Amino acid sequence: MTPAVIPAVIPTGGTVFLVDDDPGVLKALTRLLRVSGREVRAFASPQAFLSEHDPAAPGCLVLDVAMPLRSGLEVQQDLAASGVERAVVFISGQGDVPTSVRAMKAGAVDFLTKPFDDSQLLAAVQAAIERDDVMRRTRAGRQAVERKLATLTSRERQVLEHLVAGRLNKHIAAALGTVEKTIKVHRGRIMHKMGATSLVGLVRMADLAGIRPAPALSPRD
Amino acid sequence: MSQGTQTRPSPDIGRGLPASLRKLTILKGRLGERSPDTWRAALLVAIAYYVGAKVGFAFTFEPHPISTLWLPNALLLAALLLSPASSWWVLLAAALPAHLAAELQSGVPLVMVLGWFASNCTEALIGAACIRRFCAAPLRFDSFRDVGVFLIFGSLLGPLLSSFLDAALVTAIGWGEGAYWQLVRLRFLSNVLAALIVVPFVLTWAAGGIAAVRGAPARHRAEALALSCCLIAVGIAIFDRQEAGPSTAPALLYAPLPFLLWAAVRFGTRGASTAILAMVLLAIWGATHGQGPFVTSSPEENARSVQFFLIAMSVPILLLAAAMEERRKAIGALELSEERLATAFRSSPDPMMIVRLSDGVLLDANARWEAMFGYTLEEAMGRSAADLALYANDEDRRHSFERIAKYGGIRDFEVEVRDRTGSVRETVLAAETCEVGGVACFIGTLHDVTAQRGAEREAKEQRAQLTHLTRVALLGQLSGALAHELNQPLTAILSNAQAALHFLAANRVDPDELREILGDIVSENQRASEVIRRLRALFKRGETQFQPLDANDLVREALDLAHGDLAARNIDITTELPSGLPAVRGDRVQVQQVLLNLLVNACEAMSQNEAGERKLTISTQALTDGGVRVSVADNGPGIPEDRQTRLFEPFFTTKPQGLGLGLSISRAIVTAHGGRLWSTNNPRRGTTFHVSLPRHAGALP
């Protein structure tokens, strides 16, 4: 079992948050997305969206660029500033290059110029939902590993760092100034606490949590 | 003279030494200022007075103290009338020594002499003051008014009033013989006659008489000489060669009349007064010497008869002379005006013509007219405007004739005329009715404005082109926004249609849902069509069409068109569009252009503002004069006062890419609408542009 690994299944669930100040466009896009099997929450202004947005809900954001008071790009920044990760697809009636470049650099999944084909929109929404799912899962996996890491003693953590560096038990014992047997016990506890079935699985979990390998040993080793 | 200085009444004298000394200094100053003319006049008055008195004595019948022809008073009056009122006292003072010299010689007591001087001066002063009061200009005896004023005041009132005084003085002092009323009558008649013959004579000769004689043609002088000879000969023959008595023929009295008439008709007042003087002198001389055609008992009574006769004759002759002068002047003025008119007609830089009103037949035309139409006067005269096809549009001809006949003239009537070759020129006709030989005509001037109108049309065309080009440029600036305005409905249409396809593909056809989708597609399509229609109207170069417009509608349309641009720039728009505004008169497209221009400018003005700090307020307001004002306020940096007016100059711009034509064209558009475009700085920040448009007479359609 490798819970921290991105699954191969394609997620179909997730809400599409749709923001456009043009009521006609908002209505048409809502309709199109719903008939394509998407759950849609439509907002006529950035303010309405920001006040009702649930960051925990899976799904993506389809955001119009040109809106009075707050542009789509600014809404994207607002979300990032408040620590919310949400995959964004921009839609714009004026597809000028500088704006789209800025949007993509800020992490947008796609930038569609109106009028666009349904396949373009649905593909972009699909990709965004996948990105959102990946981000969500990655975040969830990291958080699980971090929780397990927190249960390790500081000695076990030291041993883990050496394990991640690919060292043998005897080398670790030498580096930590103990005997090989002790290291073996630590290693068994670590595997148990982290729920790892193999060394490879443990290393991947440590990698996900950002555990860095212990520095190289002294020359006498 | 020094006597006169001292006797001059002055309220200040006697109030104290310093005051009287000052007054004397002023008087000396005034004396010093008098021109040599005044002194010469004073000397002349003294001499004339003395001589006149001597002549008067010669015509006096003892024992009556009154002369038959007492000239000094009339001479004094004439002198006063010839001088400014400020120097009258000098002339009167100059007469005193002459008076004393003449009177004292004849052994009259001093008291009586001074009394007479007083009454003489009174007569002259009354006459002169009254005449001055009623005739501002110097008396010329060339009008009924002049002669009338002189007769009433100079020859009637002055002598009458002073005669009462004179007779009273004579009676009081007890000099000579005669009852009071007899004295009044005698003195009055004597002085009336003197005034009648002396004053016109002196005044007319003093007013350029010598120069007139010098400048007169020889024939005229010969006629005057002949008249003088005849008059003197007849006068002597009638008045001085005939013994008065029962055998005299009174009818001969009228013998001088033809010569007096001759003088009045041919030589005016100057000639008439001279002739009268000559006749009077001869008649009085004869009468006082018992000669002449008067059947009376005594030379004295004879003289009275002569006085009556001469007064009765002089008055109509003077009036006739004045009438002749008036007529001569009127004829002169008429001739001058006719000559001027003819000269103006011939030399006018514009074509002029005289046309018979009833049938439009040409009676006269000037050289310019011939040049314009290509007809000579001989060819065109007697032919009508319709016959010559002078008017390019026959309706114009009839219309102009009607108006001339109805209103007696016409001004600034624009008419196209056609010359002989058929080429048409634009002219402005001014005409006035007149009568030629009893026939109603009009005299008309045509001013050729072909070149002027051509230039005006060209300028107008260029203005229209420039307006259109700036509008296209403005739409170019807004192209992104306009694409946005089209892309929105297109997106909605496409997505709706594809949603419907998905429903069909999924075999989940809900007729209600499908109907709703199709309805949305239709309305979005209409929305797109509306955008295109508006754009076409803005891109098109049409004729200016004034129509009633709703200012609020115009503002909403402009906001719709610029919506994309406003949204892309994150501008917060506030509108204050009260309902119930009166309709304004304007060209829809051009007013849109102005509003779009102001919107785009406002957006650009706020480009440096923080996001969320870009506020645009558009408001409309009914004006007291019935028009509507549209105000576009931004909260940009504002415009310095010194640039506020320059903003509207062509090629003045504050933008790096600006051409500087937008606002100047906008102002030209608004001005052509009869409105105003101006800017003010906001109290806090930013600028507001105001457009005022005049009210449309009718209601909104």
How would you characterize the overall build of this protein?
The complex is a heterodimer of chains A (221) and B (701). With 221 residues, chain A is an alpha/beta fold. In chain A, 52% of the residues lie in helices and 11% in strands. Chain A contains 9 helices and 5 strands. In chain A, strands 2-1-3-4-5 form a 5-stranded parallel sheet, with helices on both faces. In chain A, helix 3 links the parallel strand 3 and strand 4. In chain A, helix 6 packs across helix 8. The N terminus of chain A is likely disordered. With 701 residues, chain B is of the alpha+beta class. Chain B contains 23 helices and 12 strands. Chain B has a 5-stranded antiparallel sheet with strand order 2-1-5-4-3, with helices on both faces. In chain B, strands 7-9-10-12-11 form a 5-stranded mixed sheet. A two-stranded antiparallel ribbon of chain B has the order 6-8. In chain B, helix 17 crosses helix 23 and helix 21 runs antiparallel to helix 23. The radius of gyration of chain B is 48 Å and the shape is elongated. The N terminus of chain B is likely disordered. Chains A and B meet through helix 1 of A and helix 18, helix 19 and helix 20 of B.
Strand order of the largest sheet of chain A: 2-1-3-4-5
Low-confidence stretches of chain B: 1-32
Overall pLDDT of chain B:
82
The value of Rg of chain B in angstroms is 48 Å
Q: Which class do the helix and strand fractions of chain A yield?
A: alpha/beta
> Beta-strand percentage of chain A?
5-15%
Number of helices of chain B: 23
* Strand percentage of chain B: 5-15%
3D shape of chain B: elongated
Report helical residue fraction of chain B: 55-70%
Let me know the average pLDDT of chain A.
85
- End-to-end Cα distance of chain B: 94 Å
